[in-house]
Amino acid sequence: MRARPAPLLAGLALVLGGLGPPAADAQHIRVLVQRSPLAGFQYHGAAIHWEALREGDPLQLVREPDNPHDPRAVRVEWRGIMLGYLPRAENREVAREMDQGTPLSARIGRLSDDPNPWKRLRIDVLLGL
Q: What is the pTM of this model?
């Protein structure tokens, strides 16, 4: 019985299906699969470390399945410092893929001095092929 592709990867398979097998150096290929604001900017390390953050900086995504507020919680860290979370409304697919061992990474996609904390930092979630 063949496993059904995960939802996050299903669309990617359609796009890449005609490209043939990935190159031998495929671990260096990353595809943008999601863009999200950072939830909790004002409550965690993002506000404190604002001046040091740079667009393109790598971020770590950390699953928190035991989080009492959201069983699909995905914590966002920069250099080991918690910045916040992927928004609850946008973490379902990322959490599912992480739980299945899909190679996901993240980076700071955009920084903005907007007074609205939901618009200050955008996270780009990437799939490694």
A: 0.77
Residue-wise pLDDT tens digits, 56-79: 999 999 999 999 999 999 999 999
The span from the CA of 63 to the CA of 99, in Å, is: 8
- CATH classification of the domain holding 115: 3.30.70.2330
In a domain, 2, yes or no: no
Q: What is the pLDDT of residues 107-122, one digit of tens each?
A: 999 999 999 989 999 9
Which string of DSSP letters, residue by residue, matches 31-89? EEEEEEEPBTGGGSHHHHTGGG--TT-EEEEEEETT-SS-TTEEEEEETTEEEEE--GG
> 85: which 2 tokens?
């979370």
